[in-house]
Amino acid sequence: MNNKIITRFPPSPTGFLHIGRARTALFNYIFAKKNGGKMIFRFEDTDKTRSKKEFEIIMLDSLKWLGINWDNEIIEKQSERTGVYKNYLRKLVEEGKAYISKEKIEEGEKVGQENEIIRFKNPNIKITFTDLIRGDITIDTTDLKDFIIARNIEEPLYHLAVVIDDFEMGITHIIRGEDGISNTPRQILIQRAIGAPQPIYGHLPLILAADRTKLSGRHGAVSVTEYKEKGCLPEALVNYLALLGWNPGTDQEIFSIDELIKSFDISKIQKGGAIFNEEKLKWFNKQYIEKLSMDDFITRSKDFLPNNLSSKLLPLIKEKVSYFGEIQALLDGELSFVNPLPAYNKESLKWKQEPDLVNTKTYLQTILKTLSEISDFSKESVKSAIWPLAEQIGKGNILWPMRFALSGREKSPDPFIISEILGKEETLRRLKFAHELL
RNA sequence: GGCCCCAUCGUCUAACGGCUAGGACAUCACGUUUUCAAUGUGAGAACCAGGGUUCGAUUCCCUGUGGGGUCACCA
Questions:
Q1: Pairing mode, if any, of strands A76-77 and A38-43?
Q2: pTM for the predicted model, two decimal places
Q3: Which nucleotide is nearest, taking the CA of residue A135 and each C1'?
Q4: How much is the ipTM here?
């Protein structure tokens, strides 16, 4: 291929990085990489009142965190390119392709004031473009009227700035959300007016909320930042996002970003919008946590792990959580047996099939005796000491009271693991306590 | 409402005229477990409707219906 493919990701820094936008960035990235091309990052900040520096930083960080890399060293901002736009604007006016119009401002702080805005002289034609995903799309531009392209010669509006930037940056492929379809004819009109070549368009299906409307803030967690804070792994989020609206045509579901690049085929992108399903994302994340080595698990979840955590709890945590953010709740719940025993009702020590507490007391006595005779308190050792007893008397009859006496909770890991973690002394102490309670 | 886009299990999707319509998440059942989780096995679950085209349509065409997007001196 002699013409290198150049895609772009041009967010406006007016908020956090929305997962829909993150997916758009991802597709631009893997499409470019698949074809040996580049992806350019730039900021569209022509709206001075809504654009914020802090959002620029967040967007950059979010993308980096996801592992989506852009190829330009310097990130251009439209707010710093007004000189460039001004030249095009002047030329368009000189050539009669746009004109200055004195009009009263209808909204905002300066309502009523007169302003010299610049309108594009609409040729009122039908525009047809070929979409990579949807095929030919024809739209009559007449309805667009003479649309406004700049507030004044110094302040271009979105459509003008985008077209000029894409042209000057040599963008060959514009991959964006489906909501961009209606912008396309307007932009093609401007391209023709300034003599820019027409890039190839691909409009991605939208990510929808459960109610089938465009996913937005009022639907819960929608920013990359929120998922990061939940303790979601970036590779899981990327994997899930890629499969929302795209599939490889095989049954493979787990993809690293490099594998995505290898397998990517833009013609396999779906046309209809896809509902964002948190449950499935969660499943992906759990898969990725499972694949982590223990060392990796520790380093990657470190922001979520308390300082004084017993390392023996780590394997239990790793196999239980779907997001790192669940760790604290786990430690406060099922794994809280490492804390001092809570007060509990002695009835709880009774296995559901036991008529009363008479036998339970003797079982506890037996367990106590058995365990006091062994010195190795590894879970295997404790288990081999107790198991014959459980087989003989009944697993529930023995193991339930033992586990409850050790954990003081309805839910917990098995009594052998707890014994190992607690150690012999504390294990015997808790069993003794239960025994005396009866 | 105008214009545009879309339509397979609850959800994400496979199928590129001929199959018992496949997989994954979720759900349910059973097995394993003392509990919870995890895990194993299995089950239920879909071609929006009506016309064409064709020997034959989920698949191609048309219409209807439904859903979505977009209609700023926002991007």
A1: parallel
A2: 0.95
A3: B5
A4: 0.95
